Amino acid sequence: MKKVLFLCLTLFVLGLTITACSKDDDNTSIEGKWVFSQEGFAIGNQEVLEAYEHTVGCEKDYWEFKTGSVLVDGSFYDDGNGCESEIYLETYVKSGNDLLLSLDGESIAATIMTLNSSTLKFKVTFIEDGQSINYIAVLNR
User: What is this structure's pTM?
Assistant: First the structure.
């Protein structure tokens, strides 16, 4: 009888642990600093991603999502005299897996494919020559 009670209690605790982990993953916040790590395209179900090319010797390009729908867009380049930065304040709205970005005055609709504590992966769909193409970016904390 004690073994059955112990087994039931163990299964109950395990069930709570699994449920709690799943719930935490579903509620991961987009807020925070994300560094670009990969980018590429998908046509149909075929994804081709490559390492994001940061300027050697400079800070890594990033997006920082802040409260109040503020997006800090940080990019870095070497102007021949050392690293220079371009920091822009943009806006975003996240609703479920939909991410509406306002970058340089242009509205861009993106779909979040992955959002967890370490990875943000999104796609932007556009039409080129009558064909649907998805730009994909992967960012990490």
Answer: 0.77
Count of domains for the chain: 2
DSSP-derived secondary structure for the chain: -HHHHHHHHHHHHHHHHHHHHHHHHHT----EEEEEEEEEEEETTEEEEEE--PPTTSPPPEEEEEGGGEEEEEEEEE-SSSEEEEEEEEEEEEETTEEEEEETTEEEEEEEEEESSSEEEEEEEEEETTEEEEEEEEEE-
In this structure, the answer to whether residues 104 and 48 fall within a common structural domain is yes
Give residue-wise pLDDT tens across range 36-89.
999 999 877 889 999 999 999 999 999 999 999 999 999 999 989 899 999 999
Domain span at residue 8 reads 1-29
CB 75 within 8 A of CB 69: no
